[in-house]
Specification:
5 helices, mainly alpha
């Protein structure tokens, strides 16, 4: 999936991962770990949106069919994720 930026937490702060993200044409928005020797610039404004995505996943996991993935077909599971996403957005 093409992306403009990849947002991750400090656990994913590795030079090899940052390089692969850069090679894919995206920007890595990963805060540096405390033990990193050279400082890395990252966007705090973009990183703040990560919380919204995590809260959304937490909300959709309240629906049993999504959390346990009863559906065998990926298309059907994806359709129910969209349906639950619409329900969560309307609340």
């Amino acid at each position: 999936v093409p992306a403009r930026c990849v947002v991750a937490d400090k656990a994913y702060d590795a030079a090899a991962l940052r390089q692969s993200i850069h090679d894919a044409g995206a920007k890595a928005v990963i805060p540096p770990r405390a033990n990193r020797r050279e400082p890395i610039r990252w966007s705090k404004a973009i990183y703040r949106h990560r919380n919204l995505v995590e809260r959304f996943f937490c909300r959709i996991k309240h629906f049993r069919r999504i959390a346990t993935r009863y559906d065998k077909l990926a298309e059907r599971f994806a359709s129910f994720v969209c349906l639950v996403g619409a329900i969560v957005c309307m609340q």
